[in-house]
Amino acid sequence: MNIPDGLKYTKNHEWIRVEGDEAYVGITDFAQSELGDIVFVEIETEGETLDQGEAFGTIEAVKTVSDIFLPVSGKVLEINAILEEKPEIVNKDPYGEGWLIKIKVHDPAEVDALMDATAYQQMINA
């Protein structure tokens, strides 16, 4: 299971990579493997400001649909355009090309409170 250092993680299996006051958000390798083959990603929150833990979209796999939640409060700046044509990229590269949204982070303290790679690994192994 791939759990890169340098990212922060949520109990709902999202990751966040902060770059200045902006950040990329996606789902973890564990989450994509549990979902199975992803066939559709629906995110219609571009331009919206959302609270930490609020759903910003859904991921549809062959057998299930799951909400995806914002790790920290912020404004959705961009949706990964690749996902419309190739949602399966989330299965292949969840931490790279398979990112879901880019946000403007409102409260850096929320990021600090998230799990690091070690804590996330312990949670999924519990």
Describe what this molecule looks like in 3D.
This protein is of the alpha+beta class and 126 residues long. The protein has a single domain, classed as OB fold (Dihydrolipoamide Acetyltransferase, E2P) (Beta Barrel), CATH 2.40.50.100. Helix content is 23%, strand content 35%. It has five helices and nine strands. Strands 1-2-3-9-8-5 form a six-stranded antiparallel beta sheet. Strand 1 and strand 2 form a beta hairpin. The mean pLDDT is 97.
Write the layout of secondary structure elements.
Layout (H helix, E strand, L loop, with lengths): L7 E2 L4 E6 L2 E6 L1 H7 L2 E5 L6 E2 L4 E7 L3 E5 L4 E6 L2 H4 L3 H4 L8 E5 L2 H5 L4 H9 L1
Summary keywords:
alpha+beta; 126 residues; single chain; OB fold (Dihydrolipoamide Acetyltransferase, E2P); 35% strand; 5 helices
Low-confidence stretches: none
Helix content: 10-25%
CATH architecture: Beta Barrel
Task: Quickly name the level 1 CATH class.
Answer: Mainly Beta
Average pLDDT taken over every residue: 97
- What overall form do the CA principal axes indicate? globular
Number of structural units classed as domains: 1
Distance between the termini: 14 Å
